[in-house]
Write a structure and sequence with these properties.
Radius of gyration: 16 Å
CATH class: Alpha Beta
Oligomer: single chain
Number of domains: 1
CATH topology: Spore Coat Polysaccharide Biosynthesis Protein SpsA, Chain A
Shape: globular
Structural class: alpha/beta
Largest sheet: 7 strands, mixed
Helix content: 25-40%
CATH superfamily: Spore Coat Polysaccharide Biosynthesis Protein SpsA, Chain A
Length: 206
């Protein structure tokens, strides 16, 4: 476990990381986090929801770094070249953060709950776990959302070793940890915007 014991885990012990380091392939290769929703970039929606839940905040991005920096937070690129995926973003976050815990959320989930981190932290405290991920149940069945997670900085060495084997799957990574799954009732809150039509639908619905 990290240096903070479960019963002292609080926002000041947590760095938030918004993952915006992907290629945006399904959205035509554009920088997905910078696509507008209701007049502001997707990433800004996530930053505004995550900021009150953590002590410090950063963005993981591999392009448009100056644009991401304009939101006022540090920008941490992957430590590996070639856009290897969200686990590489987590690796960078764990390498850079100075708090015992790291919370992450993707830049394309603009409706994440305002109590996301608190519920994950409570579950970690209760189980004495080193990580927690969000889970929802609904029309699509039980869905795990490992990109919405809270994990101990002490997992960094294990993640380095995991990535060194060529593995990239987040589910497989979290399966190697003492990880708890935390159920959230708001299935829609974890919707990922992967395509232009999905973004347009959300624009019209909200």
């Amino acid at each position: 476990m990290a240096s903070s014991t479960p019963n002292t885990l609080s926002a000041s012990h947590i760095t938030g990381l918004v993952l915006a380091g992907g290629r945006g392939t399904r959205m035509g290769g554009v920088d997905k986090g910078l696509q507008p929703l209701h007049g502001k970039p997707l990433v800004q929606h996530v930053l505004e929801r995550l900021a009150p839940q953590v002590g410090t905040l950063a963005v993981n991005a591999n392009r448009s770094q100056l644009h991401y920096a304009s939101f006022g937070y540090p920008v941490w690129s992957d430590l590996q070249a070639g856009f290897p995926g969200p686990l590489a973003g987590l690796q960078s976050g764990l390498a850079h953060c100075t708090t015992p815990w790291l919370a992450c959320a993707p830049c394309d989930a603009p409706l994440i709950p305002y109590d996301l981190v608190a519920h994950l932290a409570d579950a970690i405290a209760e189980a004495g776990a080193e990580a927690a991920i969000a889970v929802t149940t609904g029309a699509q069945g039980r869905q795990r959302h490992p990109v919405c997670a809270l994990l101990s900085r002490s997992t960094r060495d294990a993640l380095d070793a995991f990535l060194a084997t060529g593995e990239r799957k987040m589910d497989r990574w979290f399966a190697t940890l003492h990880c708890v799954e935390v159920e959230f009732p708001e299935e829609h809150a974890f919707s990922n915007i992967n395509t232009a039509p999905e973004l347009q639908r959300l624009e019209e619905e909200q």
